[in-house]
């Protein structure tokens, strides 16, 4: 595929043209200086800075030319691989692999030249600073007029000043300009497959380089298909909005509008409170799920400044003499710090920790097995996302088939409900999250199974570590089994519990903030022994391929419906989304941004127009618990809200303020166009859900609409959280909320569970006193 030179010139980005012209100008002016002043009392030391600046500018021009050539080659390779894999379905596997390898090599060559150009840019910046220092440090008596701003000739001084300004301008502009010399859209146009292949390479190389910086060099050297390529392919499919001409800022602006008017699920009056036994047991076993984070992640969040000291203390570095008494875990460091960190957090003796693993490979989960003789229980704690390998497991979110072995706990066993067994068997095939299913399988084989066989044939044998611990006549015969985990660990714990439930009847799983990982039939079938606990609006429990696709469609609909949005407004909306955590309000619900957040009473017409009865509910002081946007009466947040949100959000809202004579405004059209859910068509990935019984911890809104003296008594005080049994269908759509990431922090869920259980105990004690 050959692209003519004339078209190639038209494909240049305007920043590339400016950089090329200015660099050539630096070279041209440098030649003039050398011709005019060479040999006129100017020493070699005084001429060298100008010479180096000229050379650097020339190298930068050549690097730009080479980058353009390699970028064109990479674009042609992407177009070729996209056509071979999409338009030719019967293409041979070898041809597709060769095309993909050529695409990766072309992209790597282009990436190498862009990195070289970046290094040259850094050299130019340093040379510009050095040149200014040389010119500024020379005394007025310097004979060489080339390096003296006090030259007698006015035109010479002016020429020197222009040269210095041009050198500094080129160096600074290149620091902020993109590395792309040509416009990718000039090659790909509106081809969906080309944009997918392009962003697959962008994410693939980005992930591999990030892993290499974290010490995983093997991923950078691997040129074959692996789990990183699968994650990059999935991420590339999510950025296909570029094929429609939509930019990244426009997408962020759409997300900002979604956050501004997001309609959260309502909690009706018939909502059922979560069972007290579930809340009590979930609160009691949550510390084990949190203690599984034995790396520095837990301490970074809780001790942002002194986290190295806190982590070293938790790892037992200051008590290294007790190393030999600590349990040995697979992959632990030489002082057995991960075992010490886990035991220190849950305050258990060293004999309680029987087995565990902290090192990880592909789809391998870190875990800890603890024996609690005082309550006759064996606890299996599965760690959540903490390492790059965990992030890769999260990213392998394509669906995969669940086998009969994966669902053994719902099919075999005398204690299985026949109706549940029949529902599972009659509705095959079943699906699950690919990375989580693979991790659960590997974890089951690691703690309960063993591989044996000859001649390369592997056969599975039962009777692993758990059976030797909980079997008849063993140390923990008759003990209960509790499997816990947070985030990714909670989802893996759920799949592991489904497989083990057939062997151990007294088994319960508590998954805190898990990812959706099974289909609806399996999610209902395991409700008797699996409990998923969601803390307010944490993003993980809403995260699936379908929910991301629906979120992308909803965000892009903003601009397809509202064509009057200009670039300035798009930039402001994108800035609003990127800094969304700064615009939290303490006086009104977050999804109402105009009158509620900015406090502008004159915009009530717009709020009533767009949001309907919801604005009346807020203005009348009716605080609905169904709204998940949390109110924090913190003075710092209120100060930020008044000083920053009003300036930005008033401008954004005023641009979308509906005219009385023109009701067809962009926001109104957007609200009418965005569906509550998208119907699934043929070829779409199947829907996956949270497993088991879903308990939602909702933070109550704090208000001061009642006299202060009424809140002094314990009988009048409202608990800060409410725990209800939620419908898992409510977690199909991602809620863009300022708290969606903060609510996922592990210690926040623990605090919510404790407060719910404390309020339940206070209520029971109060009712008992009244009855007496």
From TrEMBL:
Domain DUF7358: 9-241
Molecular function via GO: hydrolase activity
Record field: transmembrane: 12-35, 47-65, 110-133, 158-177
Signal sequence range: none
InterPro entries the record matches: AB_hydrolase_fold, DUF7358, Fungal_lipase-type
Domain Fungal lipase-type: 379-536
Keywords for this protein: Hydrolase, Membrane, Transmembrane, Transmembrane helix
Alphabetized SUPFAM superfamilies for the sequence: alpha/beta-Hydrolases (SSF53474)
Database matches in Gene3D superfamilies: alpha/beta hydrolase
One GO term (biological process): lipid metabolic process
Name of the featured protein: Uncharacterized protein
Origin species: Beta vulgaris subsp. vulgaris
